[in-house]
Amino acid sequence: MTKIKMIIIGANGSGYKRTIPAMKDSEICEIVAIQSRNGEKLKSICKEYNIKNYYTDISEILKNEEFDLIYIANPPFMHLDTIKECIKTNKPIICEKPLARDYKEALEIKKLVQEKNVSIMIAHHLRHQKAFMDIKKMINSQKIGDVVSCWGQWGFAIKPQAASSVWKLDKNLGGGGTFSDNGIHVIDFIIGLFGTPDKVIGNSRLNSFKETYSNETMMMIYKDKDITINSSHTMPYAGNHLLIYGTKGSIEVYGAMSEKAIKQIIIKIDEGEEKIDYVQENLYKNEVEDFIKYYFNNDKTAICDTNIDDGIIALKLIEDMRKQI
Question: What's the CATH code, domain 126-281?
Answer without folding.
Answer: 3.30.360.10
